[in-house]
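chain below, 721 aa
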Amino acid sequence: MATIRPVILCGGAGTRLWPLSTPAKPKQFQNLVGEATMLAETAQRLESSQHVMFSTPLVLASAKHHDLVKASVPHARTIFEPFGRDSAPAIAAAALASETDELLLISPADHYIADTGAFHQAISAGADAAQNSRIVTFGVKPHYPATGYGYIETEGAGDAVQEVSRFVEKPNLNTAEQYLASGRFLWNAGIFLFRADTMITALERNAPEVLAGSMEAVGAMSEDGHILGRAGFAKATRISIDYAVLEPESANGAVCVVPVDMGWRDIGDHKALMDARAEAELKNVGPTITVDTHSVFARSDGPFVAVIGVQNTSIIAENGAVLVCDADAAQDVKGVAQVVSGFGYGALIKEPLRQRVKEWVFEKALPLWADIAWDEQKGGFKEAISLRAPYEETTDYRRVRVQARQIYAFAHASLLGWEGDAEAFITRGFAYLEEKCFRQGQGFIHRLSPNGKPIDERVDLYDHAFILNAYGWAFRALSDEVYLKKAMALAQLIDAQLGLEQGGYADDDTGADMLRSNPHMHLLEAFLALYEATYDPHWLGRAQNIVELFESRFFDPVHDSVIESFHLDWRAHSELGHLREPGHAYEWATLLAKFESHTGRDLKSWCRRLVARSEMCDGDLGTDFVPNSVDKDGNVVDSNRRLWPQTERLRAKLIMVDHRGLAPAERIIERIFDTYLSDAPEGLWMDEYDARGEPLSREVPASMLYHMLSALSPAIDPDCC
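prediction:
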């Protein structure tokens, strides 16, 4: 009896099972048709029996689901993908990471199989063919004319192993009925058995670019996290194994199929889930009640759900969303999920307003800043420019944080679809920072002159947070591993230079009796950016440390606000501790919500309280805008209104949507365009007004490009913000 290595494919977002399945916790990590997660049940199904001998399973999954994989199958071998590339690159990586003569069984993690014994017998029946360099598929005998599955046409009937005539796509109902009547068609279960070298040869013959990219990715795989090399994996064509290998190989007679009747279902949508649970005689989940219903599945993670007089329907109240879906329309859930799957609800902004945002970003702001941001004579990004052409630099200093913010801005712009030379700005920006501003063993200085001479050599936490953020976005844009190495080294340097025994970080290295929450907030932003670029749990762990500081130190539960300033023992500062900045509260809400989206840690209460309290500041002025600062009781201290708090308010309102929907966020966009942007030349902005709405600015701070892109990006691409 040959030993077979199970390879469990655990990728995919499961969008057709939204809102039960989410990007943070897709369906394969949910308990859907049993007591364990679908991944755990798949692994249990692939334990040795009298029919087949299995070795330790190999699980391929997204790196962002590292902890979920380990929780479900702690003893499995793992390979983590830096991003999804469909099944062909994943299977190529599995084959390349295995012994050449090893038999591999490819099994998706989101299938339900009622009869494990029949499954094992089918595997045993196909093992000899696989040993003899055939690719073996497993075809499920159809019980009804399914339109949601692909089919395999066979050349014979009755034999344990049959020749494959062709693979066909999901048919319409009439065609499916013909397939069923013919007796020659099987459902394509997406389960395959082959020798590793057989698959490698087939890939080399039919999809050499998939093989080459996967080979490079496996060669650069990290030792600790088993994460495939990002640059190589990006070169592997995004394609399914069916298209890349099985279809062309079946034409050459290299593919065979084992028919099997094993109570199989692909839990791909709410109808499949409902049917599988009905067959298993499982009840509804959570606080639910049904009256006079038929073929109804109700599930809730909190709110009580009552269903009366309804048939053939799924009602899911999970993860802050509610779905009511006719089972026959289950395929349409994917389209809804894709609209709301990004961070926040920017995809739902009205189309004319979205086009207005895109036009300003891509046709006005970015072309202008590509011309004026960089100092071609002296190097470096300009700190601020005149409101009038020729837009000359107006300051006699440059802050390191602004250099980093501009690097971020051009990196993010490229990911949003800007076709300018972002790589040049990124590489020149970092070269300038490292040549002019870095001190070995100490960190980056705080300020320098436009000529590149040091002015202030303190090591400032706020500056370093933005450099870390820039490294994360640069890696995301360019896939250059050097930025990750530099980010890790810089984070360790920050720990050594500014880390405090009592938790958190000093504001700078001067020893002053002052700690601030705001630089910590930007560290959280940077750690999240690095996590989203790599899905390395190290960065998420660092982010969690900042979140815990927020909960224990920064949040004022009496006034639902963020304390800005502290003494070194973390007491609220005696002179400045009463001050609050609404813009920072909105920023915290956005970042806490983002952390929750990655971890599931419940931070909704903090976010709601921060936003609700900050919204009260708008009413005090009656201007649709929030002021620069208030005291802890909400009394206005600085009634002027810079642009950046308005952009942070926009970001928060795109996440914390209330009964008014997106109307408040859309109004903020319109008001920003009709004031701050209309009162300045195209592509620029008025930075500040007084309480009466009179412009105060004579220059344009370059640092605001960071705020504008981060605030407007959800309206351009909600998955890239």
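The chain has a mean pLDDT of 92. The first helix runs from residue 38 to 45.
thats it, cya
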